[in-house]
Amino acid sequence: MHLIYFFKKTRAMGGTGHSRRCSFPLGTSFALAALGACVSGCDGSPTLGAGDVEQPEGWSDALAMAVPEDLDPDPDVLEIELEARITDLEIIPGKPTPVWTYNGTLPGPLIRAKVGDKIVVRFRNALPEPTSIHWHGMRLPNDMDGVPGLTQDPIEPGGEFVYEFVARDAGTFWYHPHINSAAQVGWGLYGALVVEDPQDPEVFGDELVLVLSDMALDEEGQFLPEDSGGEFGDLFGREGNILLVNGKVRPRLEVRQGKQQRWRVINAARARYYTLRLPEHTFVKLGGDNGLAERSVETSRIVLVPGERADLVFTPSDPPGTSRWMQWIPTERGFGSVFNRPRENMLEIVTVDEDPVLPAPIPVELREIERIDVAGAKTLTLDLTIDTESTAGTREVVMGINGIPYWRSQPLEARVGETHVWTIVNHTAFAHPFHLHGYFFQVLDDARVPEWKDTVDVPAESSLEIAVRFDERPGMWMYHCHILDHADSGMMGHLWVAADGETHPPHVELIH
Ligand SMILES: [Cu+2]
Question: Residues within 5 Å of ion ligand 1 by Cβ?
């Protein structure tokens, strides 16, 4: 315990500090030195390092996600079949819910590739309405982006589409429909896509992918109406009443004290923000949307807005036999988002009855993030707006960008090779998670750890600047609020990245 405490303290203090029991040479070889010193000198301390032991047997079985069969024998090609279909699943025991699934599981299969792999997805729509698959965060060719009306036709019931692209970047991504998105994602259509970097240090630990979501069900396990709450539902964004981790209600994870785990966490909810807290523990955040950040950071809470991801190391520090809950904490995202809302238990973490081990040190410097050169960048301002419109005597919430809902918008324009700085302004009473398709951006804020992102929170009454290089891949790309109720209410826009010599934007259908 003391060693673990000492280790964390040392890291947090940047390598200066002293254990109450032992003192060790500091620096990158710290843990090995610590381990060596303890084997010979510290009573009752761990005598094994995290690298010497396995995770407890079956540690993550309750969180397992389906793995799709790879139909291509080439080790650098992952070819899979995905079918969207309604499947009865028991979210509430004994009360089957007609969940909208990929291949019958919630979440859909965990797609795992390595950097450079080609991914081929043979998709079939067995749902009663049109759908598509958007590969959130992936830098892929425009016609593979999965946005009906913009990059492909809607995939009708019984229809098929083959998605094919190269996984160019390591990171934690996910997939979901991009038509009637709030409803379809809320009914269960989402899955994780992990692109591994074989160069990643092994000290990050055994990997666990956690897909966080929620679902709005009545006591009989039936979906509440997808437009429940009417105008206020649109305004607030519809959060489900049942929290899910990998499609399960309050599942259990087994850990061994000191044996670290790498968690890739994805917020796949249609509207809910997640603030995660594990009492008496901190996390070491490695990065988020698009791979490792420039450096790791120790933090007591992880905040994920819809669409966003976190890559972190979790070091269990409870003694054997302890059970503890990872909690969802209400996040301030505007009116009604925190007042009188309790914390909720999400994931039970049980420390097994095994001797503690000494965790390995997590490097602070992770990778160099080259800053986007914004000299000469084109600038523009995107104001996230909320209005009401009266049509035929009924009042409707209409959201937009610069006051214009998606279905009446004109495309922004960029040319391949341009760098842009966008100021995203939010004068509304609600926070909005801003997401750009197809390109990574950097938030221009020296207070943040440099990293590549595709989704960022814009809190109420605030603004931020992002820099993005439209270096390749011309086409029509989306940007929108990732509270999907807001997106469907109009808070979306499209961007034409013009190829060399291209003078007219391609025809698009803005589906409302
Ligand atoms: Cu929003």
Answer: 432, 481, 483, 486
